[in-house]
Amino acid sequence: MRNAIVLLSGGVDSTTALAVARSKGFNVSALSFAYGQRHKSELIAARAIARDAGVRDHVVIEIDLRAFGRSALTDEIDVPKDRSVEEMNAAIPVTYVPARNTIFLSYALALAEVREANDIFIGVNALDYSGYPDCRPEYIAAFQEMARRATARSTSGEHTVSIHAPLIHKTKAEIIRIGSDLGVDFSHTISCYQASEAGRACGHCDACILRRKGFEQNGLSDPTRYVESEMVGS
């Protein structure tokens, strides 16, 4: 079996990307990060998802992106709530974590070298909230080019590192449909930017709104547990 590294946050997109990698026959090593995020319950979700998926191994790396700040996910900045999709796409949102995907992919590249993996999967998406600069196709293409010149394996002439972003041109509804077709149990996933320690979602942040909309468009019930009892899926 071919080895692959899958970046796994515990959310809908990364969990679906993991399912895609496994459906293609890859022997997966999952990689997650405790990076100082306020919604740490996503790591609990990631561990459960990796365990249920039967991955080769699950590596959790601790780094502290709070040292840089300037993000609502790592700093004392209010998470935007109850915004329309148009408002979400109007500018780079404060939930953007500076250079996060570059940092994560660099760690994945290092793990790929020691796991003898030629493939890295990341669940970035450029459609529903395209303000994130490190979720764009041109960004992935640029990192791909760098990765092929960055490691001993990739420069030996015998191996080529490929960065896979299978969901980058998909809407949230399409991603949920792909995951459902692949048997993903979305009840384990956490999308909320400010989920409680128990994994309950706020129901009002951009991630919650996009997630709920995606399930509704598929005619599916969102299994998320919400803080407010009246929210769908609570």
Give your account of this protein's structure.
The chain has a single domain, classed as HUPs (Rossmann fold, 3-Layer(aba) Sandwich). Helix content is 35%, strand content 11%. With 234 residues, it is an alpha/beta fold. A five-stranded parallel β-sheet has the order 3-2-1-4-5, sandwiched between helices. Strand 2, helix 2 and strand 3 form a beta-alpha-beta unit. The longest helix is centred in the middle third of the chain and has 15 residues. Helix 1 packs across helix 7 and helix 7 crosses helix 8.
What number of structural domains do the residues give?
Answer: 1
- The whole-angstrom Rg is 17 Å
Taken as a percent bin, the fraction of beta residues is 5-15%
Question: Biggest sheet, open or closed, and with what strands and sense?
Answer: 5 strands, parallel
Q: Determine the mean pLDDT.
A: 94
CATH hierarchy: architecture: 3-Layer(aba) Sandwich
| Low-pLDDT stretches | 229-234
**How many β strands by DSSP?**
5
Query: SSE string, helix = H, strand = E?
Result: EHEHEHHEHHEHH
Task: Compile the SSE list and pairings.
Elements: E1 3-7, H1 12-23, E2 27-34, H2 41-53, E3 57-62, H3 85-88, H4 100-114, E4 119-121, H5 137-147, H6 152-155, E5 162-164, H7 172-181, H8 206-217
Parallel strand pairs: 1-2, 1-4, 2-3, 4-5
Helix pairs in contact: 1-7, 7-8
